[in-house]
Amino acid sequence: MFELYLLRPETVKVLDTPMIQKILPRYVGVIRDQKIANFILAKHVKFSKSKDLWKNHDELMKKFYNIRKKVDEGKIKFSDLKKPKISLLDLKIKLVEEIMESCELCERKCHVNRMEDELGFCKVSKKCLLSSEFIHMGEEPHITPSHTVFFMGCTLHCQFCQNWSISQWFESGHEIAPEELALRIERRRKEGARNLNLVGGEPTPSLLCILKILKSCRVNIPVIWNSNFYMSEKTMKILDGIVDMHLSDFKYGNNECGLRLSKVPKYFDVCSRNYSITTKTTEITIRHLVLPNHTECCTKPILKWIADNIRKKAIVNIMAQYRPEYKAHEYPDVNRSVTRHEMQEAINYANGLNLNYIT
Questions:
Q1: Mean of the per-residue pLDDT values for the chain?
Q2: Is the pTM of this model over 0.90?
Q3: How many other C-beta atoms are found inside a 10 Å radius of the C-beta of residue 121?
Q4: Binning pLDDT at 50, 70 and 90, where does residue 2 land?
Q5: What is the pLDDT of residues 314-328, one digit of tens each?
Q6: CA distances from 7 to 4, 134, 136, 330, 358 (A)
Q7: What value, to the nearest 5°, has the Cα angle with vertex 244 and ends 233 and 25?
Q8: Around 11, how many Cα atoms within 13 Å sit in the side-chain half-sphere?
Q9: pLDDT given for residue 233 in this prediction
Q10: What are the E-state strand segments in 25-152?
């Protein structure tokens, strides 16, 4: 475990820095086993069968947050909670199965029956298909070491995707049983992983598989939803009470760039809506990858939106790692790396907005 931190010594004390403590306190608490991960608490909220499952879900979420508050404040002991036969997590699994019968997990809403293995835009079936899983040492300091699980497929079609072999199915992936992956999560936690980092591609199409994995997982570990944030509102409700921290990509400051470079409609409208929803209940780190020639149309509008709407609730990672991959050569505006001037302009703008950011 300690050998991992020798690879990235700056990760050792980062959890005690004022910004992390202020914006991500519960995430840090779960890492240190001072708090209980959301998915574990969800397994201790009793579900009684009901005809109106969504109404029941909303009622149980109120109960979930009441229980979590009391456990966090030490008013009740987690060890005193009884684990019901059917829980809030089981209800979420049932709801996702229903959603997938006419799939609208993401905002594309293909409405294919994925429970019968019909494939929509993402080409993900109901199987649990991975590209790889390992302890990642290259994430943000407060996330590293991270047990990163790469799921196949994606709901976007980014023309410069750096994980294009996963997102666009140039790999076939390998199937894994949820129970097996749960055992690997428990082992990675013992090896020093701070969190379970669910990514891809994009994790959204694999939500059913992920919930089944968490149902089998017995270790207290914070769950990170590492996503493009193009989820439907129903998916946002399912993730509430499961995810401990969102780690999102906020790519474009308008709908037009999203449609041209990621072949996705209403990108900014959908993602900004989801940010407004999730920051009411869940801690978040937002990644913004600065694109060449997109400072004015994307970087500045994104940073301004964050400052105006969720500035006190989010850590923003302003990233310079862009490199032209996949089909970027077909788009002259993004067929190069970002310049030092473009990065400095982004950082200066973030400073002017008083954002909580890292680089």
A1: 97
A2: yes
A3: 19
A4: low
A5: 999 999 999 999 999
A6: 6, 15, 11, 37, 20
A7: 130
A8: 22
A9: 98
A10: 129-136, 146-151
Phi and psi at 246, nearest 5°, equal -85, 135
Report all structural domains of the chain as residue ranges with CATH numbers, in order of start.
22-222 (no CATH), 250-359 (3.20.20.70)
Measured N-to-C along each axis, helices 207-216 and 178-191 cross at an angle, to the nearest 10 degrees, of 60
- For residue range 79-120, list pLDDT tens digits in order: 999 999 999 999 999 999 999 999 999 999 999 999 999 999
Distance CA 182, CA 203 (A): 16
| CA distances from residue 180 to 97, 163, 176, 186, 216 in whole angstroms, order as listed | 21, 25, 7, 10, 9
Token code pair at residue 117 = 């293995």
Token pair of 47, please? Answer: 């579900």
Smallest CA-to-CA distance from 275 within 305, 252, 301, 254 is with: 305
Amino acid at 150: F
Residues 6+ apart with CB under 8 A from 4: 135, 137, 145, 191, 192
Written as six digits, the tokens of 164 are 């294009």
345: buried, middle or exposed (CB in 10 Å: 19+, 13-18, 0-12)? middle
